[in-house]
Amino acid sequence: MAMMPKKRRIDDQMRFGLMWPNTKSQNVTSGTVAAANPNPLDVGVHQALARTVERVGFDYAFFADTYAANAPANIAAGHGEPRIYAPLWAPVVMLATEHLGVVTTLHTRYLPAAVIARIGSNLDAISNGRWAWNAVPGVKAGESALFGGDDVPDERRYDQARESIAAVKALWAAGVGEKVEFHGEFVDVAGTMAGPVPVQAMPPIFNPGVSPAGIETIAGHCDFGFTAVVDDVEIVRAQVENVAAAAEAAGREPGAVQVAGSISIVLGDTEEEAQERYQWFLDAVDVEAGAGFAKFFLANSATYAKLLEGLPWDEQIRRIGVGAGSSVLVGTSETVAEQLAGIQRETGLKNFLLTPFLWAPEEIARLEGVFSALAERGVWTPPSERGWSW
Ligand SMILES: Cc1cc2nc3c(=O)[nH]c(=O)nc-3n(C[C@H](O)[C@H](O)[C@H](O)COP(=O)(O)O)c2cc1C
């Protein structure tokens, strides 16, 4: 095995990440879909999936994370239990691959900066320079209580996140044996942290915030932001432009801050078969659990509520139930590639986080056809031909 550190490269080619399966059915509120997926506690399945993902041309695996369980109706529907813990399962994927980036979520409100810095530098060492941090504040009521409560008011969560990110960067930037002092309003760090220092020097930082404070945090302090790709491309374009303008205002180099769009794909050998498969997912949604999840999801982000507003409530439940409100591209490899190229043309988005519905390795392998079709259009180059860059 020759694990290679990843470098950042800014070009016009598409990048793809896979929202890593951390539970039986992460992206469809459905016991039927859950039953059709592998066991998320099977290490061998993750290893096989990791090798598949690297082989077909993904750039990174993205581990979302949450400490709190889903609502009882979701659990009853087989949605979200059990759920593997991102930083501990990341090495399973790292050790099965040589070039794939592995992004893990670590919450700034729950983990002290020194813990985040130390987990990060060790994951970067284990992967030989392929780790990145998804720096989220943590949003769920009920989650912070697991940590004994939270003294960061919700509206200040990104102020706290920015301090945490700054302190983590200071810890990573310090040489071996060098003392660090960071005294903020929420984060206080003084001392000399044990090595290793990160292989990448400064691992990339992702942040999926969509509120103004979230965007300011991405623009000023992170390398990648996220937006849900929704069917109204104007909304997506506005989000991409917002982040670019905020990054420019923050004095960042052009292209230094990229936006990744979360999106789902349902493939068929024919258009008709793809539509039938998509309908199968819509029909499989557990409506009761889906309604609860949709309410919970929208209550946790006014921004997402706004992104979906105008759609009938029934439609909102289905859309959140299948793919958490993101667009679902349905078609053959050819027509899905066409749709992706269209989204790139119309929005400027070129980094996509695919949220899978069925995630057995042989299901994910089908995406190879989409990548080939994108390569023919000149918008995608295999990672091996661009230095396996981020
Ligand atoms: C692609 C994507 C992945 C996310 N992953 C996580 C996660 O793993 N853990 C988490 O607590 N929140 C996660 N979130 C929620 C965000 O952290 C954020 O709270 C949400 O996008 C709303 O943005 P806002 O906080 O700026 O209102 C994710 C959001 C998106 C779009």
Automatic annotation (TrEMBL):
Residues 14-348 form the Luciferase-like domain. It holds the Pfam family Bac_luciferase. Keywords: Flavoprotein, FMN, Monooxygenase, Oxidoreductase. Coiled coil: none annotated. One of its GO terms (molecular function) is oxidoreductase activity, acting on paired donors, with incorporation or reduction of molecular oxygen. InterPro entries: Luciferase-like_dom, Luciferase-like_sf, SsuD_RutA_monooxygenase. The keyword Oxidoreductase applies. The keyword Glycosyltransferase does not apply. This is Alkanesulfonate monooxygenase SsuD/methylene tetrahydromethanopterin reductase-like flavin-dependent oxidoreductase (Luciferase family). The lineage of its organism: Bacteria, Bacillati, Actinomycetota, Actinomycetes, Micrococcales.
